[in-house]
């Protein structure tokens, strides 16, 4: 039984890493359902806490590459993350006291929203030179604060990286280009995941061995996904649409199954 759980944790992490490497954001939304339905975690809270830690480590790893490439708008990213950490702390605290099956049902609904969002073509802003300075603070700070707090709260409540929300949130607040918003979003995703994981860890809801295996599998899957992305080239959009359909379908299954249990 132990070996089966070990292999399931590695393979589940590899699936998430593969998707992230192949088509980019959205893959981490699979972490919680994989931990519940494949690895076999009985408690949705433990799955969320473990997922949050794995997502934070993965985001931090990818942030290094974006930082080296110079795509991170550090001041905007750090302010967004700082406000978001407060939201993540509040959201994860609310998640901890939410009944497990209800939490899982709501997670199914958020999966449907993520899948639908992936079908939309993402566009960036036009201000490539945007910076948070003394002159721009009056304009940017309220937007970054409001957007960061809201996204952080949702990320903390569901235990997801929230990159699919952070990227448009940063663009809406600053009008930075898409590439910069993707790089900058990883600062927030790392911070939100770490905050949520720490909150859940205080309640004993992080399975550290499973998290380690999940991260190891994700690293290997990410390398394979990045290689496949180069090989497949133009077919990536088709794969993205297919994956969004899978996410929506999985979300419907989780939401309907949870609703049947709740109202039985």
Structure description:
With 264 residues, this protein is an all-alpha fold. It has helices at residues 2-23, 31-39, 44-69, 74-96, 100-118, 137-158, 163-174, 178-202, 208-232, 236-262. It has one domain (1-263). Helix 4 packs parallel to helix 8, helix 5 (100-118) packs antiparallel against helix 10 (236-262) and helix 6 runs antiparallel to helix 7. Belongs to the 4-toluene sulfonate uptake permease (TSUP) (TC 2.A.102) family. It is a multi-pass membrane protein.
Keywords:
single chain, 264 residues, mainly alpha, 10 helices, 80% helix, globular
What layout of secondary structure does this protein have?
Layout: H1 2-23, H2 31-39, H3 44-69, H4 74-96, H5 100-118, H6 137-158, H7 163-174, H8 178-202, H9 208-232, H10 236-262
Helix pairs in contact: 1-2, 1-9, 2-3, 3-8, 3-9, 4-6, 4-8, 5-10, 6-7, 6-8, 7-8
Taken as a percent bin, the fraction of beta residues is under 5%
Name the helix and strand elements from N-terminus to C-terminus, one letter apiece. HHHHHHHHHH
Number of helices: 10
**Estimated helix fraction:** over 70%
Q: What's the main sheet like? A: none
Tell me the number of structural domains: 1
């Amino acid at each position: 039984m132990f070996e089966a759980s070990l292999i399931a944790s590695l393979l589940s992490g590899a699936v998430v890493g593969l998707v992230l490497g192949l088509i980019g954001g959205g893959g981490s939304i699979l972490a919680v359902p994989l931990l519940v339905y494949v690895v076999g975690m009985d408690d949705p809270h433990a799955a969320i806490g473990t997922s949050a830690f794995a997502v934070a480590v993965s985001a931090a790893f990818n942030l290094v590459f974006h930082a080296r490439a110079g795509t991170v708008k550090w001041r905007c990213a750090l302010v967004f993350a700082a406000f978001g950490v407060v939201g993540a702390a509040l959201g994860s605290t609310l998640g901890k006291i939410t009944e497990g099956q209800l939490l899982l049902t709501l997670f199914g609904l958020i999966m449907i929203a993520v899948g639908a969002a992936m079908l939309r073509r993402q566009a960036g802003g036009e201000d490539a030179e945007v910076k948070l300075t003394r002159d721009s603070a009056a304009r940017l700070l309220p937007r970054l604060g409001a957007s960061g707090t809201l996204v952080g709260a949702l990320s903390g409540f569901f235990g997801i990286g929230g990159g699919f929300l952070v990227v448009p949130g940063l663009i809406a607040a600053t009008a930075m280009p898409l590439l910069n918003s993707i790089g900058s979003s990883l600062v927030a995703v790392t911070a939100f995941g770490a905050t949520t994981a720490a909150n859940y860890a205080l309640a004993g809801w992080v399975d550290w061995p499973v998290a380690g295996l999940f991260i190891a599998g994700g690293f290997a899957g990410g390398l394979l996904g990045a290689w496949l992305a180069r090989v497949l080239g133009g077919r990536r959009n088709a794969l993205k649409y297919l994956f969004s359909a899978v996410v929506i379908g999985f979300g419907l299954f989780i939401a309907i199954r949870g609703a049947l249990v709740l109202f039985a």
